[in-house]
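Note to self: keep these together.
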Amino acid sequence: MGLLRYIQINYRGIFRSFYFLVALIVVLVFLPREGRFKYEFQKGKPWMHKDLYAPFDFPVYKTDAEIFTEKASILKGFKPFFRHDSLVQEAVIQQFFTEIRPLWISHINNNRLNSRYNQSQLNVIFGKFEKEITTAFNNVYKKGIIDQSESIQGSTKTDMELSILKNNVSYDNQYSDVYTRKKASEYVNAKIKAFTSSESSTFKAFWYGVDAQKYIQPNLLYDDYITQKYKNELISNVSLTKGLIQSGERIISQNEMVTSDVYQVLESLKREYETHISNRNWFVVMLGNALLVGALFIILYLFLLSFRTEILKEDSKTLFILLLIAFMVAISSYVIKSGIVSIYVIPLVIVPIFIRTFFDARLALFIHLVTIFVVGFFVPNSFEYVFTNFIAGVVAILSLTNLYRRGRLFITVAFIYLSYVIIYLSLVTIEDGTPFAANGFVLLWYAINALLLMASYQLVYLFEKIFGFLSDATLVELSDTNLDLLRKLAEVAPGTFQHSLQVANLAEAAIQRIGGNPLLVRAGALYHDIGKTVNPLFYIENQPFDFNPHKNLDFTESAKYIISHVTEGVKIANKAGLPQQIVDFIQTHHGTSKVKYFYKLHRDKFDNGVDDVHKFTYPGPRPNSKETAIVMMADAVEAASRSMKNITLQNIDELVESIIDKQQLEGQFNDADITFRDITTIKTVFKKKLINIYHARIEYPDNK
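Structure:
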């Protein structure tokens, strides 16, 4: 029963702990299952560990550059395959003579050759032509007319070799020994031209009307299937290794320099070692990952529980943070495993940028650290990677101010890219002794990283809608007095509108002193009395000098109208789609206080006035943040200051002190994260602002 009772009381906290468990499982799915090599080393640096001997036999793997060079060498001398089609020659020659004879007869008739030659002579002439053209066609088709596919087109190598398949037998041939369609056509035309010159001009006009190119068709057809199959076989036969290190063989001694060759051996040992560990102890490796990542998530949970309890109280905020971490781990893991692009292209700095946009800098830094520590488990050169992204994240957080201003994001991204470049060049200088040894591709990856940061930030609006967040840009938009609601407030209730502007100025000045979100305070202050647009004349700041509707109402009815501006304001805000954070200011700016003026009159008139106190009490709730608490104070102080007849420094001081002290005694600030020191600072700010507004003067003693 005790356990069940505990679960009933703390079920929400238990349920949110489940979010962390699910996030942990998702991260573990994407973490590598290989064991980790227990030695750290860098090329060009001394070996800082004890003498290392091979724990088992292992091959030395070639570098990617070596494998690429070997494959390129193979492909350079590779001969594409062409299949010889003997049917093409027969079909084309048959088509030629089928079509040429009618043309010859037409030529004889049109040119009246039958009047100059008898039929026997014409047959002899055509027979010679037929023999000559047949010989020309046979010659080009015997050598072969090549199909100029993509593997041949554009090539200028006359010594290129081809593999020709004829009757399922392959033989090699030079590209220069076969015909292209153009060369074959030129050859046939040259033969016929020589024939007509030696015989007579009878065929010259006839041959001009014949399209010889039509009968020149490729009979060496590119065989893509055989070519690719053979090419893949050659590439697959490239050895990935270039030697063997035997068990017990010394690899490197302590303080010995890690040269390029030794570095390759160490990388090979690392690869084999992690594979051996994974094959034998897969479960143990995953358990170790679970403990390490679990420790980070526990620290994150305790941090939120101690310093950001409001996040744990809202599912959307908790889910957003955990999803952001899990997604960055997943995408980083995919990039590492696929090898499509460099890990440096992943914009991890987007994590603190998003968190800073919706929350605060301290939380952004902590979440960023958790993310880069998790990613650091499986990236190469973990320390350098974590250090680089840590600095870039800090730069992003420090430079990410006033993001609602145009161009600010460009400046932030520029600072981030500059920090990447400086850190990378510094590390290269330490390792190689000169910054000129830097890899230009790494700088390019960082540039793409910066561009992705700018593109990813456009998701802010989407996250606002999905998770119900508020960005600075949205708050600036909401504070525009030309928006429909605020313009209506200015037109329908001008006194309330002026009051809201003054409240916004007071509250904004105070929040800037004690720390908080001034944009949120200003927007909340502008909308806090939006409910007064329903019955504006029931509020004194909107009443003409000669009209007061409360004269004809009893005290409870008057209080009902006054209190209704809170509930009506919530309805108007929800209908207009204002964010919940702004609605909170409308609900809480009077807390659970009373309509004191009408309650006092009611109590003086009726002996049982105490029993009717609920009729004069605002529905609440009380302010739940320092921002809403400040607006509550500013609202009461500004309204009361308007009724002051004799404005002096002393009167303003007493007014501010009395109003805020009464609110404090009523417990209106008990649910807000605000301290006594903050309240003292707020009072000081309000006094100074009111003195400036009303130009209060010191009362000098009368000398009479």
